[in-house]
Amino acid sequence: MDNIAEGFGRGGTKEFINFLSIAKGSSEEARSQLHRIYDRSYITIEEHTTLCNNSVEITNKIGGLIAYLKKSGYKGTKFK
Question: For 2-49, how does the pLDDT look when each residue is reduced to its tens digit (9 = 90+)?
Fold first, then answer.
């Protein structure tokens, strides 16, 4: 969430996309950590499944926003 806010605050689409990519990677990293905490029995299979599904959904939404921004041609507020 912080990477998304920072990227948006920069005012340029290319920078925003860069920070969105970082946020997407962080979501993937969180999913990796979920596998480890499940393997160590800190969470149940139901919790693991729910949290992993949420992570996949977030990753896909960030990817969709990246794709949209790349196609939009909008350069950002700092270029007005």
Answer: 999 999 999 999 999 999 999 999 999 999 999 999 999 999 999 999
CB neighbours of residue 62 within 10 Å: 20
- Ranges of each domain in the chain: 2-72
Cβ atoms of 24 and 1 closer than 8 Å: no
Location of structure tokens 């962080």: 26
* Residue 69 · residue 16 · CB < 8 Å: yes
At the top level of CATH, the class of 2-72 is mainly alpha
What does pTM read for this prediction?
0.88
